[in-house]
Amino acid sequence: MEIRQLKYFISAATHLNFTRAARECFIVQTAMTQQIANLENEIGVRLFERGYRSLTLTPAGEVFLQDAREIVAQAQAAGERVKSFEEGYANLLRIGYHGEMVKEDLVGLLRQLRLEGAKWKPLLYQKPQTELLDSLRDGVLDFIITLYGAYFEAEDWLEWELLEEDRLMLAVAKDHPLALRESVTMAEVEEQPLVNFDEKNNEERTIELARSGRHPREYCRVEDHTSGEILVRSGWGSAIWVSRLCRPELYPELAFVPITDHPGRERLVLAWRKGGLDPDRLAMKDRLSVLLRGGEQGIVKK
Fold this sequence. Notes:
Number of helices: 10
Strand content: 15-25%
Oligomer: single chain
Strand order of the largest sheet: 4-3-5-12-6
């Protein structure tokens, strides 16, 4: 069994399509199916149910996928650690983050660690929230900085600390009719076509709003912050952003209007895998928590 085969299997299990998996792995489709067949023969277990136009994991495949992800993650981490050791670093620090909201904080945090002479080699990964959680669970990342969702409670492998709770604001183009308002109500927000981020906790937010009798109108969903920003700047829609994102100096073509009666708050958290931190990383977790909250000399927050 080779790491390469496990990567092929993970890709096929993720896409449930050999053609797309082959494209992702830069091999031809026949090579992908042959490699998966060889893997199944080697371990003596069928990993996929193959239909005429469908591909699904068997129960054994579901179990094997978890182990395969951990093995590949550990192999990747081992390679990264030894490379960083050769470069003179004592530790590797892999941080995943969600969206643009912590970009300035990360600049300040990493600058502070560098000035302190920390022997850590930091690596950053910006991904959608679902991918961040998968990477954290599989050991690809040490920490993630993301928005809290109620579904976190069902993840018994996950631990987190609250960093900040933000109110929500309406982001609009500078020439939007609401741009000069001191505040808006949710009734007014409901009249706006909203550009939403495609996040795992969207359903949770929708239910929360519905319970308060609010049903905002969605223009579209985007997977990245820049696409949403472009649509709002060009006037095709408005967006609900957390207050820490609403920085006029960074977005001079946008206006940010407080929403007086939005029922929710967004909670920013630092998360890690339960039992996944060695003593050095436990100490680093405490250090990150202090700096991300703007403590000591560290990071000036809005």
